[in-house]
Each structure stands twice: as C-alpha cells, then as structure tokens.
Amino acid sequence: MTVEPAPLSALLLNCTLSPSPAGSSTDVLGRQVLAALAEHGVTGSQVRVVDHDVRPGVELDMGEGDEWPAIRRQVMDADILVLATPTWLGQHSSVAQRVFERLDAELSETDDEGRLLTFGKVALVVVVGNEDGAHHITAVAYQALNDVGFTIPAQGVTYWNGEAMHTVDYKDLEETPEATASATATMAANAAHLARLLRRDGYPAV
C-alpha cells in the first residue's frame, strides 16, 4: 500500500503592531497568501506575534514567560514560513525585527550531519503599507531569513504600497489590485514547488 506524504504546511507570522482583534492590513494580505498556498495543497495557520510575550534576545528561550519557544515549535513544524510585516517610516515593524533577532538562535541549531534545522524550509515575505518601503524591507527580510537557513523561491514576495502622502490602507480597498494578486499567486506556486523539492531531496550534508 502506498502511503501518501503529509501535506505541506505554512505558518504565517503576522508582525502587525495591532493586537487582536483589531483590523490589520497585514492580516488581510497574509490571509490571501495562505489562501493562494491552499490552492497548491498547503495547509496554513497564522500567529499574530504582538499577541504573545516574545522577549528580546537572541536565544531559543529567554526564560520564564517567554512565548517564543511555542511559536518556534510551529515554525519548525512548518514547511513554509511566511513573514508578514507592515511598513512604518519606510521600515519593517519592530515586531518583525524581534522575530529576526529570535531566529538568530537557529544559527547554533544543527542536525546530526551539520545542517541547520531550517535548511529544508522555504520562506516568503509579505509587505503592506500606505507608504513606500516594500523593496527595502524585502531586501532586509531576504537577507535575514536566508542567513538563518531558509530558502527563498523566485519572486518570493508579495506587497502593496499605497499612494504616497495618502492614508488609504490595504484593508480598506474594495478589491485586490491585479498586480498584488498576480504576485501572490506566483509566489504561492513557486513556494509550494520549492518546498516539495526540498522535502524530497534536501541540501547535502556539510
């Protein structure tokens, strides 16, 4: 009897500054990404990081009360990590920066053959904001995520920047802009394809 492989899974870390249940443009675009991944057989879930006590630091566990270890377990259980951040002053959010800093600890975590535990995982980036900054944020996020072992697929980002000097948010739009929808679809297809390749034939031992 042939055993079907487990479906791919994705975890979206929503790095909005707005605690639940407040509306969030990052949540809206992030959910669209999870829906696009689902079209390729990827199950998805979301964590709104600001709802949790993620302590500052660069260790796996920063002690009593730190909720990062539980979030990290979800990251490590997923095949695809989606890092979603709003744009503030042209930069990624402070919550996203906290996530990058906590992921730094993965540089010390390896398997029996010397590979980082993240080597078999794909990472995607989602950026949203009513100001410029998506390209800069994407560059920073790509470097951070790749440096700690994640693999970025071709066109592994989707974003929306509102018109300069205006106050319209993504969550206020009546329909998804065609360019953003197209980027989301391409990103999801490439991510699922790459994640399956990595699951089947991962990186060689060091």
From TrEMBL:
Span of domain NADPH-dependent FMN reductase-like: 20-155
Domain of life: Bacteria
Pfam families named among the record's database cross-references: FMN_red
Annotated GO MF terms: oxidoreductase activity
InterPro entries for this protein: Flavoprotein-like_sf, FMN_Rdtase-like_dom
Signal peptide: none
Descriptive protein name: NADPH-dependent FMN reductase-like domain-containing protein
Lineage, opening ranks: Bacteria, Bacillati, Actinomycetota, Actinomycetes, Micrococcales
